[in-house]
Design brief:
Blueprint (H helix, E strand, L loop, with lengths): L3 E3 L2 E3 L1 H11 L37 H13 L15 E2 L4 E3 L6 H10 E6 L3 E2 L7 E2 L5 H5 L14 E7 L4 E4 L14 E5 L3 E3 L2 E2 L7 E12 L3 E7 L10 E2 L11 E6 L7 E11 L3 E4 L11 E3 L4 E8 L4 E4 L2 E4 L1 E2 L7 E5 H9 L15 E3 L10 E3 L4 E5 L19 E7 L3 E8 L3 E6 L6 E5 L9 E7 L2 E9 L7 E11 L9 E4 L17 E3 H4 L7 H11 L12
Parallel strand pairs: 3-23, 15-20, 26-28
Antiparallel strand pairs: 1-2, 4-17, 5-8, 5-10, 6-7, 8-9, 9-14, 10-13, 11-12, 13-14, 16-17, 16-19, 17-18, 18-24, 19-20, 20-24, 21-22, 25-36, 27-34, 28-33, 29-32, 29-34, 30-31, 30-33, 34-35
Length: 557
């Protein structure tokens, strides 16, 4: 049978996948890396090219679907551009057995909340009080591991990992549950598949084994998540505590991965940290493997912040066998993770769903300071210069002159009347000022000129508290510098008609970007729509008055 080309590299394990499907084996395509001898003189996949080693429900399933079926039906085909790969070891291998891990917090999470997906045919539940996993192939045999590789003698029945998030729902990766077989009863989710002592697996009962009833909140387009609704409420286990962030974790934040690398009994891998972060995804130096897809990623306090979805190749050839792929964390991009927030938001949009995660018609998220008007940050009532960032903030509202991007909200309280000039520089910002969160708009400004994208407000304001919105024309989250000049009116006595003026422009430089920490728990869904009723009218007005056209005017928020 012809082999397949994956990104131009001949992939012999596709032949194995095709043969397994053709032979009708009960456990489809749990594929090992090709033995070096099988390469027949051909070179192995070069660095950066993912090996074709799909597991039936694990991330490399694209190797089975696109590659093996193509081998069966048309002989050979190029793999899709989004071939998914899994993880590896960064520096020292931090994987530890649950019982020997030093963190009591993470040990408790492992025992209470972590599950592995596996074929139901490998589960002997004839005695509900003594459930056995009958699968016997070891990690070493399945992956042709060299002598001395860690965990080589452990069974590897699992395909993906997941974390319990309420009594009946489990968070995993979208690509783990994208086939009908993932939810037709032929696969099960098993809690507590771990060693309780060297060489001794913890006992299991029927309360540890569950089936998929339906898949919710599915997404697999770079952001990768799904929530499995189990066939009944979970007994004897407890959901993990969630940290649903509205923004991004800082670079260097310590992280711990808990799941089933290569489908073996559960491991805890600490020692990772955030390498880069976007609004919905991030990358981290975590030691993760195929089978860790969907694994929970926790902060130091034991809160679930993300799940694993992709990474680098697990093993590399060393002569006639394979060894763990060890990378330098300082020179690599890291493993791909998806934040918890988009999955919970999608779950809470499910019609008729009842979950304690959705008490406010949407997930209760850890609010960033200034993310909503109700959580606005106070600006000092003096002149100053304030470097700020819009990264991680939500595009909840807009002004009369526009504002399609994320915004950050400040309050300005004046004890006396004053002339106020506020300028925002950097990127393409907008400014609008309201008489309080729900008050009337006082002013809105976009571009100073055709060539200057700065925004500027110049207002004569009475005493009182105002809400200042620093917004972006579109999705641009460039850093912004806010410059505030306040000139107060000063009266010599109550009878004076002519007023002098007092400027505090020399009051110094302030950093509004270093404000209060997270503003507690905020129901972000409740803020949606504020100010959006005018959005269509705003866009039409902008189309007529915007400076020289430089972008399409209608764009999704």
């Amino acid at each position: 049978m012809s082999s397949c080309l994956v990104r131009g590299v001949d992939c012999p394990c596709c032949r194995e996948a095709a043969l397994r499907i053709a032979e009708g084996r009960t456990r489809p395509a749990r594929l090992r890396p090709p033995h070096p001898a099988e390469l027949d003189g051909r070179e192995a996949a070069p660095r950066g090219v993912p090996a074709c080693r799909a597991r039936s429900t694990a991330p490399r399933r694209v190797g089975l679907g696109a590659c093996a079926w193509a081998a069966l039906l048309v002989g050979c085909v190029g793999a899709p551009s989004a071939v998914r790969v899994e993880a590896v070891v960064y520096g020292v291998d931090d994987r530890r057995e649950v019982f020997e891990h030093p963190s009591a917090v993470h040990r408790a999470i492992a025992a209470a909340s972590i599950a592995v997906e596996m074929g139901a045919g490998w589960i002997d539940d004839a005695d509900p009080r003594d459930v056995r996993i009958t699968y016997t192939e070891t990690l070493g045999d399945a992956n042709t591991l060299c002598p001395g590789e860690r965990f080589a003698d452990q069974p590897e029945p699992g395909t993906c990992s997941g974390t319990l998030i309420d009594a009946r729902h489990l968070l995993t990766a979208g690509h783990c549950v994208d086939e009908p077989a993932d939810c037709d009863g032929s696969r099960a989710w098993v809690f507590g598949f771990a060693y309780e002592a060297p060489g001794r697996l913890a006992p299991l009962t029927s309360d540890d084994v569950y089936r998929c009833a339906r898949v919710l909140a599915y997404r697999d387009d770079g952001v990768d998540h799904a929530i499995v609704e189990l066939d009944r409420d979970v007994v004897g286990h407890a959901p993990a505590s969630l940290r649903v962030l509205s923004g991004a974790l800082p670079i260097g934040t310590p992280l711990t991965l808990i799941g089933h690398p290569n489908g073996i009994p559960m491991k805890i891998a600490g020692g990772g940290e955030v390498l880069s972060s976007e609004r919905e995804t991030l990358r981290a130096s975590l030691d993760a493997f195929s089978g860790n897809s969907g694994s929970g990623v926790f902060d130091e306090e034991g809160r679930l912040v993300a799940l694993l979805d992709s990474g680098a190749d697990d093993y590399v050839a060393r002569g006639a066998c394979n060894v763990v792929n060890v990378l330098d964390p300082a020179s690599e991009l890291g493993e791909g993770l998806t934040y918890v927030r988009p999955a919970i938001e999608a779950l809470c949009r499910t019609p008729g769903l009842v979950s304690p995660l959705c008490d406010c018609s949407g997930p209760c998220v850890e609010a960033l300071a200034g993310d909503t008007c109700d959580a606005a940050q106070p600006l000092p009532p003096v002149s100053g210069r304030y470097p700020i960032s819009l990264r991680g903030y939500a595009p909840d509202t807009a002004g009369s002159c526009g504002g399609m991007g994320p915004e950050r909200v400040y309050t300005l309280t004046l004890e006396t009347a004053a002339s106020v000039t506020i300028t925002a520089r950097g990127g393409d910002p907008l400014l609008y000022l309201r008489a309080g969160c729900d008050g009337a708009e006082r002013a809105c400004h976009d571009d100073v000129s055709r060539d200057d994208r700065s925004a500027r407000l110049e207002e004569e304001l009475a005493s009182g508290t105002y809400a200042l919105f620093v917004d972006a024309y579109d999705a641009d989250t460039s850093d912004v510098v806010l410059e505030v000049t306040i000139v107060r009116a000063v009266r010599a006595d109550a009878g004076d008609v002519d007023a002098a003026s007092e400027s505090d422009a020399g009051a110094g430089r302030h950093d509004a970007g270093v404000g209060p920490g997270p503003g507690g728990c905020a129901c972000r869904a409740s803020q949606k729509g504020r100010g959006q009723g005018l959005l269509v009218l705003v866009l039409l007005a902008l189309a007529a008055r915007r400076w020289a056209p430089r972008r399409p005017m209608l764009r999704a928020r």
